[in-house]
Specification:
The chain is 66% helix and 0% strand. The chain is mainly alpha-helical and 199 residues long. It has one domain. The radius of gyration is 18 Å and the shape is elongated. The N and C termini lie far apart (53 Å).
């Protein structure tokens, strides 16, 4: 599982592409699917932006699982993997917006990405345990992997990183562009089908 996690980590930016292509080929958006899906996807993007405003550009590495700091602030004080939760929300939100092969594509994507990120997390936790030892053990025992919860972390495991929204936007630029372009394609297609072809 950890070896698979390392493989998934290396190619995680490209793995969603086949899902995106299927979604675009088979999309049948409705006004309601666009509204609901956009809210879910935008919420996921907001979680990502909040997370990278603490974690910084290290989240963009593809050389392998690693990290300079154990980030425990902001969303990381409530759940250990906010970026992956944000990603899943974006993928599912866009899938709902497109209404492509609904609900089969969305359910398959949800299960696949949960499995993918579970494997990645196993590899990451192995690295973090090796590097940060007792500090990570305390963090792991205080904060859930996937279920957000308000936690009172001990001062000795609180990271001293600064929240920097400008660096967050800089680091998140590619994800924001992909989210905006994908949403725009779906919305444009809906408008053309609704107001041009059917009129």
């Amino acid at each position: 599982m950890k070896n698979l996690g390392n493989l998934f980590f290396k190619y995680r930016s490209y793995i969603p592409v086949p899902f995106l292509l299927v979604m675009l080929v088979f999309m049948q958006p409705t006004f309601l699917s666009i509204v609901i899906g956009f809210i879910i996807a935008a919420s996921g993007e907001s979680i990502r932006l909040w997370s990278v405003s603490f974690a910084g550009s290290e989240t963009r590495t593809t050389s392998g699982v690693g990290g300079t700091y154990l980030v425990t602030q902001g969303p990381y004080s409530m759940v250990r993997n906010p970026l992956y939760i944000g990603n899943i929300m974006i993928y599912i939100g866009l899938g709902i917006m497109s209404f492509a092969l609904f609900p089969y594509l969305q359910i398959f994507a949800l299960l696949f990405f949960i499995f993918q990120y579970y494997c990645i997390i196993l590899a990451e936790e192995d690295f973090l345990q090796s590097k940060f030892k007792q500090e990570f053990t305390e963090y792991k025992n205080s904060v859930n992997r996937f279920i957000p919860w308000k936690n009172n972390l001990n001062d000795n495991i609180k990271s001293a990183l600064t929240y920097d929204i400008k660096k967050g936007f800089k680091s998140e630029r590619r994800s924001l562009q992909a989210f905006i372009i994908s949403s725009a394609i779906i919305i444009t297609y809906y408008l053309i089908i609704t107001f041009v072809i059917k009129s």
